[in-house]
Amino acid sequence: MQPVVDDPRLRPILDKVYSGARLSFEDGLALYRTPDILALGYMANLVRERLHENVTYFNVNRHINPTDVCVASCRLCAFGKKAKDARAYTMSLEQVWETAGRGWTEAVTEFHIVGGLHPELTLDWYCEMFRGLKDRFPQVHLKALTMVEIAYLAQRTKISIRETVERLKDSGVDSLPGGGAEIFCDRVRRIICDHKIDGSQWLEVARTAHGIGLNSNCTMLYGHIETGEDRVDHLVKLRALQDETGGFVTFIPLAFHPDNTPLRHVPRTTGFEDIKNIAVARLMLDNIPHVKAYWIMMTPRIAQIAQRFGADDIDGTVVEEKIYHDAGATTSQSLRRGELLSLIREAGREPLERDTLYRPVVRSETTFTVLV
Ligand code: SF4
Fold first, then answer.
1. Is 185 helix (H, G, I), strand (E, B) or coil?
2. Radius of gyration of the chain from Cα atoms?
3. How confident is the model at residue 366, as a pLDDT?
4. Using a 6 Å CB cutoff, which residues line ligand 1?
5. For residues 122 and 125, what is the distance between their CA atoms, to the nearest angstrom?
6. Per residue in 145-174, pLDDT tens?
């Protein structure tokens, strides 16, 4: 059946999608500019089903944020606090391990661990934390530290990025979550996160990690002061690095939440915008296997619809998300496994529990096995 394409700018793009040709920068711009969301969704769904048929992936994971103390003051952020702020917290190693254990009742397969740039926590401290987690939970995958945290630890330890990543890997880190990318454009970064590494440094940390065998995800923060050109530029740079390393597993578009940030005057993104970012990403990132609709950020309702607009993953149980909730997210802080299954099945998709590297997880009453 031929789809109805109202916007004539999309017709040549549809031909490319049918033939599997790579989309250009100008195609990306046309996709962002079109109001023809149904044609966009048709094309993104075509690619999504070509890659993953009717499956939607999810996992059972727990987020751990060891500290919200941060030396940076990114305007996009409601999470980071100064050390002297009465609301700031830093967990002891024992508290991190105890927090991790609380998620064990749902037999999590992944700990997702990120936090602020703490001025005193050392690389050795982090390595001990990861070794302690591996000792206690050897089956659980450690997806930990943004490219920004890694660059900061390297700088403070006065060693190279490569040595830092190698030490983290040796202490148990299995992959990287891919946060801190925001938008690579320097003009925007100077305004929203001028204390962070720049876009090319973010890509360099990812390149180094992939080079020593650590996979990562990648992200893009949208819905603040960036333009359509900035978004396409960001996607094209991720695609170029993926051509080189093949190390990205999943792309996660992240909607900016302005509450409690210095950019609180910026309006929140709409459902239309959230869905569009999923679809454009699926079409532009032809070499990144998975596109995730992160339900914490876009709400379970939109994440459910996104499964028909290019997303093949809706993340996991999460348990105790802090970063988006400090910025005013009104979603629940966790979903149980059964709730994720219902969200996926109601969208007519077939749920498949995965581990972090998308290997199927098979569960009995009390244990799980990752099929390798
Ligand atoms: S976004 Fe990250 S680096 Fe920036 S202030 Fe927040 S926690 Fe710190």
1. coil
2. 20
3. 55
4. 70, 72-74, 77, 79-80, 116-117, 148, 193, 196
5. 5
6. 999 999 999 999 999 999 999 999 999 999
